[in-house]
């Protein structure tokens, strides 16, 4: 399974059950759609750190990095590439 699919599955299982009719696309903004709130962002950061073995700095917790599935994939991919 690739990063995008893993993250989509996590978001689907942990957040989208509250909105079963929502068809989330990669560019959809989590906060705007009410998919994830500020507490959910904290959970998502923890999941990303644990699952991918990366450290997320406070300054990296931005709308660009954690605001959409596409942003998350880009962020995780770049952090993983930097540690290789």
How would you characterize the overall build of this protein?
With about 80 residues, the protein is mainly α. It has a single domain, classed as Orthogonal Bundle (Non-ribosomal Peptide Synthetase Peptidyl Carrier Protein, Chain A), CATH 1.10.1200. The chain is about 60% helix and about 0% strand. The chain has helices spanning about 5-15, 30-35, 40-50, 65, 70-80. It starts with a helix and ends with a helix.
What does the average pLDDT come to? Answer: 94
Q: Percent of residues in beta strands? A: under 5%
How many E-type strands?
Answer: 0
Radius of gyration: 12 Å
The rough form would be described as globular
For CATH, the homologous superfamily is named as ACP-like
Q: Note the gap between the termini.
A: 20 Å
How helix-rich are the residues, as a percent range?
Answer: 55-70%
Structural class by SSE content: mainly alpha
List the uncertain runs.
Answer: none
CATH class: Mainly Alpha
Counting DSSP H or I runs of 4 or more residues, the number of helices is 5
SSE topology string: HHHHH
């Amino acid at each position: 399974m690739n990063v995008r699919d893993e993250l989509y599955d996590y978001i689907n299982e942990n957040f989208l059950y509250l909105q079963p009719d929502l068809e989330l696309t990669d560019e959809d903004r989590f906060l705007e759609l009410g998919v994830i709130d500020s507490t959910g962002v904290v959970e998502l950061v923890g999941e990303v750190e644990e699952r991918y073995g990366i450290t997320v700095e406070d300054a990296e917790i931005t709308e660009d990095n954690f605001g959409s599935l596409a942003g998350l994939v880009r962020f995780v991919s770049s952090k993983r590439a930097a540690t290789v």
